[in-house]
Amino acid sequence: MKYTMFQPPPLLRIGKNRSVTMSQRQAASLLACAFFCLFPCRSNDEQNDDSANFQNPNFNSLYENGPPQKIEKLKCILHYFRRITDEMPNGVISFGRFSLPDNFIPNWSTSMKGLCDIHLTTGKKIEDVECALQVDFANKYIGGGVLGAGCVQEEIRFTICPEMLVSLL
User: Could you tell me the pTM of the whole model?
Assistant: First the structure.
């Protein structure tokens, strides 16, 4: 990893607008570190300002005894590693966190403004659309319970697209 990452990626903190961009090789390197549980542990008892409100990014919870969903998640992650060892992708990935101060959040229940036009595509999955933007907003914590027993849409998205797991850092 020392030849892939020269400094740790910045934390994307709650209430701050910030983004980070990295190569898919860098993301793969970070995921390998998480797979082998090389990141410092983040426990609720010992959180400091740098790790408050962040989940433990290591995959150790997937290795613990539990429901069969954990095994299926590991299969997806191992498949990802097999694919990138056959041919490392050359793209870039960006992660961003964007927020509004409370006084800028519209009161949607009383708003009379119309919504902008949208384009709805049916018959395709998110992963089948090239250059698709993937947004996670369903849980208080990014990724929800992806590294545990969680198995709803958010966790499934992260499992079938393991590069999204880098956002747990």
Answer: 0.82
